[in-house]
């Protein structure tokens, strides 16, 4: 996947329809999440679409997240969120202002409220996971 800065630069020059297409394409690039991990325990509450997030610790105290949604644009939003935290140490995730990193995309203005209402819940889940892993480290 490209980095968040490259995506933001491309996103800024696109019209709304092309922005939707970009998000859909980003969602298609997400690492596949096995069906067995799509459970009530990994379901993010408060999203209009079904969203699942599964954290996995990897070497060096870093966290890797598998995530999926049943909605194409939501998958793209998930991809943007993961670009800010994927494969980083728990402390680094906690030091990252994910909301601020996503601010240039102006998702609340670009997308319907039903598409973005679960974003804070996804971010909260990622931060809570990082807090748990940071406390153990």
CATH class: Alpha Beta
Number of helices: 8
Q: Which sequence of strands runs across the widest sheet?
A: 1-2-3
Order of helices and strands: HHEEHEHHHHH
Instruction: Please report which band the strand proportion falls in: under 5%, 5-15%, 15-25%, 25-35%, 35-45% or over 45%.
Output: 5-15%
Could you walk me through the main structural features you see in this protein, from its secondary elements to its overall organization?
By secondary structure, the protein is α+β, with helices and mostly antiparallel strands. The chain has one domain (4-136): Sufe protein. Chain: A (Alpha-Beta Complex). It has eight helices and three strands. Strands 1-2-3 form a three-stranded antiparallel beta sheet. Strand 1 (51-58) and strand 2 form a beta hairpin. Helix 2 packs across helix 3 (72-85) and helix 3 (72-85) packs parallel to helix 8 (119-136).
